[in-house]
Write the structure tokens for this entry.
Amino acid sequence: MILSAKASDMTVADRVGVVVPVGMLGGGFPRQTVKRGIALGADAIAVDGGSTDSGPYYLGTGMARTSEAAIRRDMQILLTAAREAGIPLIVTSCATAGIDAGVDWMAGIVESIARDERLTFTMATIYSEQSAATVLAALDAGQITALPPAGSLRASTVLRCAHIVGLMGHEPIAAALDAGADVILAGRATDTAPVAALALRRGLPAGPAWHAAKTVECGGLCTTDPRSGGVYVQIDRTGFTVEPLDPHTSCTPATVAAHMLYENADPFRMREPSGTLDTSQATYTACGDRSVRVEGSQFEKASQATIKLEGSAVAGYETVSIVGIRDPHILANISTWLDILDGTLNDHVQTLLGLDRSDYETQLRAYGYNAVLGSLDPDLSTPREVGVLLKVRASDQATATAIAKIANPGLNHLPLPGMTHMPSFAFATSPAEIERGPVYEFVLNHTIDWAGPGELFRTEFREVANA
């Protein structure tokens, strides 16, 4: 990887320009930045609609992380701009997790906007949800591979899943564009898939296509001000150039190169369904004060294409309590206090409910002390105040809440040995027990062999006519 200061002149005929307005649909962006991107010569608008960043709940329940109002606002801007310019609009990982119902939910929003704006276009919906039967058949055929640190997949794990999705690559999206889709709403996809699809279907090299897609997947995160809006990327046969859509923000070689570190185990290599991006020989060159030129990226095609599976299953039912502590004696010995509280709670649960530790789980997190890093925290000096979060998980909600209620007196008044006063702490809520309902966990970290178009993903077309 080489960072340099100036770019040489370049004249290449074949290229594709893409506006990526924001890192995730519903995140909001200035309306004028989209117009600016289209004016730069955009051939399409692409935006990611989801992620696993917020945990397994959204895949387990199928609910969107972002509010419908926020998504509708962003989509109204993007849809009307795309139709006015006559360019495709692509949204992937619809409704956060990309389940089939999420794609249909997004389609309903699009059709509602189209009626309000009197828009006519061809819409493709691409579905990525996988049935347990499909996954089990692949498991029996030896077509499932575990990704570290996951172990071998069991049939019982597949059957536990509330929803399973496969992360599509660029192929289903490119096929929908080739079939004439103006608007594409896709289920779960890799964050890079829509931008790569736009370049690869034009015959542009895979190295620049996938590296450009990785760079702009999160919109303005590859700029000096991620809050300012999205980016415009232009991909050609020898590389790509990226610039912010906000005229007061810049891309630098460092901000662009750094995005290969984002959510990536290797700063130079990234696996996609069809192969591996290699950026170890990439050069990053400043073009003036605001844009960056990248060249030298390569792509190694895999001998066997694979699709990553994501599955979420109910892990139990959870009740939480939150209490704030400022007692200086307790805070000076907070680790001891937490150990005593944990032991006291377990003893009381055994006595009052007859439950063993195998019947439930508890976590005590001391925010302001070491809740995030735990024993790895290099600075465990006495804090001024600590917020203690108790999480109780059991097989049913009533049991989880009963255990949290048993913890209530200790969370409110538990003294340390030798204390001559009864301390008092402050609960954040009344009642102190907050029932969270079913909680979910990711249980699939595996790939499934993929034979190509027509397998695992299905596409439907509809004409939206409101002229």
Summary: The chain has two domains: 2-128+167-305+450-464, 314-441. The longest helix spans residues 334-353. Residues 99 and 392 are 29 Å apart (CA to CA). The two ends are 51 Å apart (CA to CA).
